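tokens incoming
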């Protein structure tokens, strides 16, 4: 396990890079002349590129060697972070975030694969726990450390300095990458490069249209981008079906989604992470723009929420042992209650100053952090237990892809509600309405969790009949 420390630093760096975007977002408008829709696009560009490249990157690691792909990805992440920090304008920054997302996609599948293939069952369990903790800490650190760097009175600080810190974890991990265990390539299958482009470009078009639409009054070209994105994704699905029937390599096997448990689990992942991505973005915009907090104050105020999220994730085995297969339903109910209370507090404290709202958030953040961690923690394990082993690898890749794509879509859609309503309602009232949308998505998650619980109780043989009968 001592030799694999670089993979945990790498996992930290990938989530840290996404989180840095949230804390720097409010500063992009004044310095780059970006509208709220364009700011949301900067954040979503990373998540979309990350999502589009994950499955392909995993198969590239199987084909050409995981340590080799990890090293390339870490170097690329460091270089693209420097490119993003030096971006001379908005669209240069969007391009840099796409490249950062692509580099992170190269890194993440290799880290998890190396952990899963290093050592015996005990070492694997310990490695997975450290991997989860590293990813969670990266999310926390991006908000807190990014805010601290932005608050430094240095010539190269501000949002550019915070973005540049994304290069540091990659460079540190590179120092030990050569000592990682080498695994011989275990696949001779030719990767579906065309499939990655067919899903990545439409996703980016869809998110761009949804992000920019509210800012430009839904001009015709934003509708065109959304339509092209949806048509492109439909074309990707048809293409994958044809390739699968012909026996060619595919990114996503359409037949695998005949499994009801997998369909339910992916739908729940979309709802959960769309809400989480939107919440992170809305929080940064409200606290820094609406309430006038500095980036340092905004990041520190999030510590209680983020800390309980990480701690609950580390103690998830005990939580699930206590509440069993009802854990996700109970967590969704707690989250909905916390969101309602925070929405009410935001509505009634508008105009009362930042201190009162921050006090309410510090208390409710403890509940929200535990609830969100308890939603996602059992989700993957429940679904993986209900699918045949031969599609387990694909199921895991689909979950990670759905997670990252939903982060970007959540910022573009639910986060767009905040930007559209803030000028007329005020920031705290608009935040309350956006939280109301998330209460709806959380209620849908609860409904699907109940259905998944019933589905997971079915015998494995019944599930196997759902695919390739």
């Amino acid at each position: 396990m001592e030799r694999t420390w670089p993979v945990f630093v790498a996992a930290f760096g990938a989530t840290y890079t996404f989180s840095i975007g949230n804390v720097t977002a409010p500063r992009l408008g004044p310095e780059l002349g970006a509208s709220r829709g364009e700011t949301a696009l900067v954040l979503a560009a990373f998540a979309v590129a990350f999502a589009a490249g994950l499955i392909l990157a995993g198969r590239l690691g199987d084909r050409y060697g995981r340590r080799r792909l990890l090293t390339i990805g870490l170097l690329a992440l460091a270089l693209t972070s420097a490119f993003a920090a030096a971006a001379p304008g908005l669209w240069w920054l969007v391009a840099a975030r796409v490249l950062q997302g692509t580099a992170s996609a190269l890194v993440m599948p290799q880290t998890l694969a190396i952990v899963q293939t290093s050592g015996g069952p005990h070492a694997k369990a310990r490695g997975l726990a450290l991997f989860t903790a590293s990813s969670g800490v990266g999310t926390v650190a991006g908000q807190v450390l990014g805010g601290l760097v932005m608050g430094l009175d240095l010539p190269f600080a501000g949002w550019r300095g915070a973005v540049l810190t994304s290069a540091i974890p990659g460079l540190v991990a590179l120092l030990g990458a050569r000592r990682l265990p080498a695994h011989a390539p275990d696949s001779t299958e030719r990767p579906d490069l065309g499939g990655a482009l067919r899903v990545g470009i439409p996703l980016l078009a869809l998110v761009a249209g949804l992000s920019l639409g509210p800012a430009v009054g839904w001009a015709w070209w934003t509708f065109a981008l959304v339509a092209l994105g949806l048509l492109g994704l439909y074309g990707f699905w048809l293409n994958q079906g044809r390739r699968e029937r012909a026996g060619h390599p595919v990114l996503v096997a359409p037949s695998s989604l005949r499994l009801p448990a997998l369909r339910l689990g992916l739908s729940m992942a979309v709802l959960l992470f769309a809400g989480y991505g939107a919440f992170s973005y809305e929080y940064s915009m409200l606290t820094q723009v609406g309430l006038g907090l500095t980036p340092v104050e905004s990041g520190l105020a999030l510590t209680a929420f983020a800390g309980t999220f990480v701690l609950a994730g580390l103690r998830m085995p005990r939580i699930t042992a206590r509440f069993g297969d009802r854990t996700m339903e109970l967590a969704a109910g707690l989250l909905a209650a916390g969101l309602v209370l925070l929405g009410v507090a935001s509505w009634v404290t508008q105009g009362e100053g930042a201190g009162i709202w921050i006090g309410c958030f510090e208390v409710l953040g403890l509940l929200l952090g535990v609830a969100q961690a308890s939603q996602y923690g059992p989700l993957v394990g429940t679904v993986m237990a209900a699918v045949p082993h031969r599609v387990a690898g694909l199921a895991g890749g689909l979950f990670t892809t759905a997670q990252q794509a939903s982060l970007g879509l959540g910022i573009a859609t639910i986060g767009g509600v905040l930007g559209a309503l803030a000028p007329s309602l005020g920031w705290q009232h608009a935040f309350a309405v956006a939280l109301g949308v998330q209460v709806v998505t959380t209620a849908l998650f609860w409904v699907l969790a109940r259905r998944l619980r019933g589905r997971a109780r079915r015998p494995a043989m019944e599930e196997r009949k759902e695919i390739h009968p």
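note: The chain has three domains: 1-187, 193-250, 256-469.
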